[in-house]
Amino acid sequence: MKTLTLPLKREYFEQIRDGQKLEEYRLCTPHWRKRLEGQQYDRIVLTLGYPAKADAARRIERPWRGFTIKTITHPHFGPDPVEVYAINVEGGQA
Question: For the chain, is the Cβ count within 10 Å smaller at the N or the C terminus?
Answer without folding.
Answer: N
